[in-house]
UniProtKB/TrEMBL annotation:
Coarse class of the protein's main subcellular location: membrane
Keyword Cytoplasm: no
Pfam families, sorted: GNVR (PF13807), Wzz (PF02706)
Domain of life of the organism encoding this protein: Bacteria
Keywords (A to Z) from UniProt: Cell membrane, Membrane, Transmembrane, Transmembrane helix
Protein name as annotated: Capsular biosynthesis protein
Domain Tyrosine-protein kinase G-rich, chain residue ranges per copy: 142-194
Recorded family membership: Belongs to the CpsC/CapA family.
InterPro entries: Bact_polysacc_biosynth/exp, GNVR, LPS_length_determ_N
Naturally occurring in which organism (per UniProt): Viridibacillus arvi
Keyword match Membrane: yes
Domain Polysaccharide chain length determinant N-terminal: start-end pairs: 3-94
GO annotation, cellular component aspect: plasma membrane
GO molecular function, one term: protein tyrosine kinase activity
């Protein structure tokens, strides 16, 4: 015989196991909040902008072809910025303990479409150190790029600045708690239905009706021990009076 679950049964199960669902929900949110606020190390991000272009030689006009050439070289510049040639000097200048691999991973180079401006973003657990790495990377690149390529006009448009009370980019406690709340709710509901499915004990007259597939005609109310003793005493008293 196939068992079907109606919408009424679903709400009945949720209402019956509501305390379990709420407990799982609160536990998940509490764990996510505690881990986010007290155990995860905050990571900050800062960035600097670099403009790369060619100087006019012998007062020739700056034509559209020059712009396209510079745009096509943006990807090359991005690779050079994260290359050991640049990052080794950054590590030496700042006396960093990070390896080149770690530094490369924490630096992100990007550019807007059809733009000769390169954004150098740095992530670090220390905001001051992130600012120093971003600015030093831009400065080293500005010094080294003329030696590597035929580029003689590199300008730093906006250096990275340490802003007080800057918020870390991660972790995001609110987002983590929201995700945990959703997961906790799903787990709580899942456990509630699992318990209900595995629970085969007969507790109510409705359970008996479902098992025997017969309609209930009547019920016998349970008699407490106090009422039973009281009735026996009353019977004895009546017996004494009758004699």
């Amino acid at each position: 015989m196939e068992e079907t679950i109606s919408l009424h049964d679903i709400f009945k199960t949720i209402r019956k196991r509501l305390l379990l669902i709420i407990s799982t929900f609160i536990l998940a949110v509490s764990i996510a909040g505690g881990v986010s606020y007290f155990f995860l190390t905050p990571v900050y991000e800062t960035s600097t902008q670099i403009l790369i272009s060619q100087k006019d030689v012998e007062n020739k006009q700056f034509i559209q072809q020059d712009v396209q050439t510079n745009l096509q070289l943006i990807n090359t510049y991005s690779v050079i910025i994260k290359s050991p040639v640049i990052l080794t000097k950054v590590v030496n200048n700042l006396n960093l303990n990070d390896s080149l691999e770690v530094l490369n991973k924490n630096i992100n180079v990007s550019s807007e479409q059809d733009s000769q401006v390169i954004n150098v973003s740095v992530q670090n657990t220390n905001l001051k150190e992130a600012v120093e790495i971003a600015n030093t990377t831009a400065e080293v690149f500005q010094e080294e790029i003329p030696k590597l390529m035929n580029v003689d006009n590199v300008k730093i448009l906006s250096p990275a600045v340490e802003i007080k009370n800057s918020k870390p980019i991660r972790p995001n406690p609110i987002l983590n708690m929201a995700i945990a709340a959703l997961i906790g709710l799903m787990i709580g509901v899942g456990i509630a239905f699992l318990i209900e499915y595995l629970d085969k004990t007969i507790k109510t007259e409705q359970d008996i009706s479902e098992v025997v597939e017969l309609q209930i005609l009547g019920l016998i109310s349970p008699i407490s021990q106090k009422k039973s003793k009281k009735k026996k005493k009353n019977k004895k008293k009546r017996g004494v009076k009758d004699v």
